[in-house]
Amino acid sequence: MPSHLRAAAALAALLCAAPAAASDLEPRLTLAGPGASARTVALTLDACSGATDHRVLDLLIAERIPATVFVTRRWLDGNAAALKLLLAHRDLFEIENHGDAHVPAITDRPTMFGIRTAGALEAVRREVEGGAEAIEAATGSRPRWYRDATARYSRDALTAIRADGYAIAGYSLNADMGTSLMAPMVARRVAAAKNGDVIIAHVNQPGRAAGSGLAEGLRALKASGARFVLLRDAETRTDDGPAIGPVVARSRPPGAAEPASGVTRH
């Protein structure tokens, strides 16, 4: 076959494959009616597994900064003392669903950022319900919001989760890129939050530099006069964002830093 025909055939194959490879979504969430006189943001924190970053949690309590905390069953099982703190400050903390075992709600590819995905809708539903049951047992309340591992979803999973009554917790400002950023960068990103931003960050990596930057940025954001709201108290606007193509496994996920191996980084 002539070289120009081979090139055309290869291009056609890539174009035919593109829709299947670009079927996953990364929903965006913002505040629909942010404050007119003060910068208003919603802070959301993921507690995927692992420990508790008290640089962040203790600052929130001391400075009276509200946060919506997305917890997995795995994190609840290993952080009884931190859960007690959250429950002792119910006016500050809203506890929402991050799943049972931190599994991405994706059915059309085997991994996302190196994390094994659910693979099927039945597994997605088990992950969502397992997280909900753990939260209800720990707090006495059913969660309303859901955010999966990596904050990315296949279209069918997104539809199924919403059909079960959950609002999908996207975000508009990624503060720590799965705790992969250094403290100064995290501090700058948080301090620069715009009016109406929904911030995503992590509260379960005390050994990483990102946590100190998050605390510094939140302190600066509050000092600037910004107002923090919980998702349960906010009017929000969401869109599912553009379709996402193939992902290089070694790159960092926007909402998680956990590798495919047994080493837990969240």
From TrEMBL:
Pfam families: Polysacc_deac_1. Belongs to the polysaccharide deacetylase family. The keyword Signal applies. It comes from Methylopila turkensis. PROSITE patterns: NODB. GO terms for biological process: carbohydrate metabolic process. Is involved in generating a small heat-stable compound (Nod), an acylated oligomer of N-acetylglucosamine, that stimulates mitosis in various plant protoplasts. GO terms for molecular function: hydrolase activity, acting on carbon-nitrogen (but not peptide) bonds. PANTHER family: GLYCOSYL TRANSFERASE-RELATED (PTHR10587), SECRETED PROTEIN (PTHR10587:SF134). Residues 1-22 form the signal peptide. Keywords: Signal. This is Chitooligosaccharide deacetylase.
